[in-house]
Design a protein that fits this description.
- The chain is α/β, with parallel strands linked by helices.
- It has a domain of 55 residues.
- Helices cover 39% and strands 11% of the residues.
- It contains seven helices and seven strands, in the order αβαββαβαβαβαβα.
- α4 crosses α5 and α6 crosses α7.
- It starts with a helix and ends in a 22-residue tail after the last helix.
Length: 210
């Protein structure tokens, strides 16, 4: 699959590392009886919501090293929520990491990504890019991610909503909305360039106490 992706022109390989097994996804379970079975040609299986033919997906640092032995594209690890794992990823030579909790769908009561992002960014200390996703819905979400040090903020569900409604034009509209909101949030916080966005955009009550 990796070789096929590289042949097709993919510029990077993103490996999800935070979903080793199918945990309690109650909404997907309820939808199984109503949703059609869909083909996954790349995996050679057919499945409905919550079931893609695999209940466990073991992946460890040795597996990463094996992939690095033949992959020709940069490798990005998605699902890093712990600063120690971030540091380990850097030492294993990955090109970037994504702070992600799958939109809170993998493990309930897991912390929000915006809560762990600052600690991960501080541990990585600029050695590799730290990307950020999960729950991005407004331009202010993007502003906060950038302020905490993310090199980029990723979206998933918003553009899927646009795609389902109006195809490519719907995706374009979603991106335009988010960009307009981000520009507005920057203006409201006195930032005219992306490189001016830092943690000083956050208002803290104790900063103004005598």
């Amino acid at each position: 699959m990796i070789e096929r992706a590289e042949t097709a022109g993919c510029k990077a390989l993103c490996i999800t590392v935070d979903n080793p097994l199918a945990y309690a996804r109650n909404r997907e379970e309820r939808a199984r009886s109503q949703a059609p079975l869909l083909p996954f040609p790349n995996l050679g299986i057919t499945a409905g919501p919550g079931g893609r033919g695999r209940s466990r997906r073991h992946f460890n640092w040795k597996d990463l090293a094996w992939i690095q032995g033949f992959a020709k594209t940069p490798i990005v690890l998605k699902g890093i929520m712990n600063p120690d794992d971030a540091d380990e990823a850097v030492r294993h030579g990955v090109a970037a990491i994504i702070v992600s909790n799958h939109g809170g769908r993998v493990l309930d009561t897991e912390p929000a990504t915006i809560e762990v992002l600052p600690a991960v960014v501080d541990r990585v200390a600029g050695r590799i890019p730290v990307l950020f996703d999960s729950g991005i819905r407004r331009g202010t979400d993007i502003l906060k991610g950038l302020a905490y040090g993310a090199a980029a903020v990723l979206i998933g569900r918003p553009y899927i909503y646009g795609l389902s409604v109006s195809g490519a034009e719907g995706v374009r509209s979603v991106v335009d909305i988010l960009r307009t909101e981000l520009e507005g949030a920057m203006a409201m916080t006195g930032r005219t360039r992306l490189d001016e966005i830092d943690r000083s955009v956050f208002w803290k009550a104790h900063d103004y106490r005598e």
